[in-house]
Amino acid sequence: MCGIAGWHNNNKIDDEIIVSIKKDLFHRGPDSQDHIRFDNSGLIHTRLSILDLSKMGNQPISDNSGTIHTVFNGEIYNHKELREELASKGYAFRSTTDSEVIPNLFKEYGSESFGMLNGMFSIALFDSRSKDLYLIRDRLGIKPLFYSIDSNSFFFSSEIRAILNFPIMDRSINTQSIYDFASLNFIPAPSTFFNSIQSLLPGEYMKVSILDNALSYESSKYYSLKIQPDLDLKREKAIQETSNLLDSAVSSQLESDVALGSFLSAGIDSSLIAHSASKYISQSNGVDNLKTFTVDLDDQKYNESDIAEKIAENLGATHKNIVINEPLDLASIKDFLLSTGQPYADVSMFGVNMIARAMKNNITVALSGDGADEVFGGYYIFHLFEKKLFVNKVFRIFPFFSFLFSVLSRSKISFFKSLGKKVMRNINLTDTRMIADFFTYITEEEREKLLKKGSYKSIDRFFDCNDSIVNDDLKNSRKDLLSAKLTEVCFKLQLPNDFLYKVDFASMKESLEVRVPMLDEKLVDFGLSIPHSMKTHNNKGKFLLREVFRKRYKSSHLRKLADRKKTGFFIPIFQHLNEDSIHEVRQYLLDENNRLSRYFNIEVYSKWVEAFFVKDALKSQDARATQKILMLLSLSLFLEKYEQL
Fold first, then answer.
1. 310: phi > 0 → left, psi -120 to 50 → alpha, else beta; which?
2. How many helices (H) and strands (E) does the chain have?
3. Among residues 79, 402, 501, 638, which one has the fewest Cβ atoms lying within 10 Å of its Cβ?
4. 72 — phi, psi (to 5°)?
5. Which pLDDT score, from 0 to 100, does residue 167 have?
6. Quick one: pLDDT band at residue 565, thresholds 50, 70, 90?
7. Count of CB atoms situated within 10 Å of the CB of 130
8. What gap in Å lies between CA 372 and CA 495, rounded to an integer?
9. How far apart are CA 495 and CA 502, in angstroms?
């Protein structure tokens, strides 16, 4: 895991700029920092050593002819198989690192080599023969990669903060991203907070060339998501296949020349990852048992440490509880938010970062259960929409109910009026609107009141899609079609732009590499073939994973965990502030000169702020209310720092 950056067609990149970039990416690669220059191009790398800890594994690294040069962030899990294939064709290698495979594979297969890589990665590759630069991002967007095209020059980096060191002239704010951020609490790729900076999409590569002193570029897909549920899939076969593929995924991601461990909660995802890892860990790196880590929270509502200890004991793992009692102040929260590179407001990033900081004292590589909800249908909306479809059917059969609640919605009694409006709204929801309501943090009504009138695009454009759904049979089953649409939104919108962005940023800030076996390519392909009937059961998601859990954890006190409802990871950060800091953040957001008021109606968001920071409300704050305040604070900080008035 590393940090990468570089430039193409610019002769004004001096050493001072390179030093600044290395400094901004140091947390991604504290073990080595290096760069290579060409005529008007260059590659920069900061290394977190994982495989082959010698200097031979440092980057930039080239093929054996010295013509293809690469900087790379991530891991290639099938590098040994690829290395053997290349060796049989006469290629020689100087190291045992996975990064050296990339330039040699490209020399042999060209751009076809990108689809041969199994792993998590962002790659920059410079071909000194053609003077072409290539950027490549992994299939699902596990690793970030940003670029900017400015004044006939091309720049790129793992992080937005680092790319801003380059001489980019246009630093104007992307206004549409502000409106999208208000609803989603993240900015969807390819857009970013800046008009001149874009994010390379998952499964995409970009070729940048210089023709007649003019920069030209084109992006292409080497991987496209295909959701093709197998409606004839048998249940027992699916359970066994899930178990086998999970074992294979985890075993392929255990290679490491540094200490490796696993996140462990009371949830089924991390418990299954740990179970698979405990079977193969000694075969992979010679240690006797798996190291597992659990967060120990003061808030017992979210504390799962006792259960996690029992799971670790069952596995024979070396377990450690990480007590999170770090003091938080407004200054540290502000610094943390600004270090994300652009507005971002997933409150769980604070917890992930605290865990990563503590784990780094013991290990350098961690396994995580992220991705299971997307692959196996773990979110409550996967079974919630079943209820909606049922109620809609009842209202169609008995139209009297529609008439009754329509009358109630016009009642002068507020309770009945509110009830009637809520029922009628839910009954009349389109599929697109229902999906949008799940993935957004403010309602359609709140959004209309909050945003100042302007020419912004509707947030619904992210949810009215079925580009990845290739099974025509689903047209006969609205339930399976809607489930497939949800899966598409999960993979294309929320997973890469929110959850994976969070895990990468919050862990790499502490120089901890996090691997996500649930997003192994074979496991994902199988997950995309699962019909809806095997995603939910008895109002719970992830049916197949729950069944695998039951088969693996057979003792009664652990087996019952398969029936636990999904719980989120929520850190109530504002509760940890002292009264002075609470007063400060409240005044900061309510200041009439705050730049939020240029985009949002202050009379709307001021009510959110006032209601949130009432003492009793603050004690019982929920995740959704916290997200609203964090969204306002994050956006306000970035506007204050970067907006040019």
1. alpha
2. 25, 17
3. 402
4. -150, 135
5. 94
6. confident
7. 11
8. 11
9. 10
Please report the pLDDT score of residue 645 as a whole number.
56
Using H for helix, E for strand and C for coil, what is the string for 122-146? EEEEEECCCCEEEEEECCCCCCCCE
Report domain extents, the chain: 2-221, 573-642
Residue type at position 301: K
Strands (E), 356-505: 365-367
Hey, what are 5's tokens? 């950056």
Higher pLDDT, 341 or 394: 341
Tell me how far the alpha carbon of residue 219 is from its chain's centroid.
22
Tens digits of residue pLDDT in 178-212: 999 999 999 999 999 999 999 999 999 999 998 88
Torsion, Cα 398 404 405 409, to 10 degrees, reads: 160
Return the HEC string of 201-258: CCCEEEEEEEECCEEEEEEEECCCCCECCCCCCCHHHHHHHHHHHHHHHHHHCCCCCC
Q: Which amino acid is at 444?
A: E
Structure confidence by residue, pLDDT tens digits, 439-480: 999 988 899 999 997 778 889 899 987 777 777 777 667 788
CATH number of 2-221: 3.60.20.10
Banded pLDDT at 17 (limits 50, 70, 90): very high
Contact status, residue 91 vs residue 64, Cβ threshold 8 Å: yes
**Nearest-angstrom CA–CA distance, 130 and 67:** 10
CA distances from 110 to 68, 114, 209, 220, 312 (A): 11, 8, 15, 14, 45
Q: Are residues 200 and 190 in contact, defined by beta-carbon separation less than 8 angstroms?
A: yes
Q: Torsions phi, psi of 216, nearest 5?
A: -130, 150
Over residues 237-262, the mean pLDDT reads 96
pTM for the model stands at 0.93
Instruction: Give every strand in the sheet of 68-76, ordered side by side.
Output: 61-62, 68-76, 119-127, 132-137, 204-211, 214-221
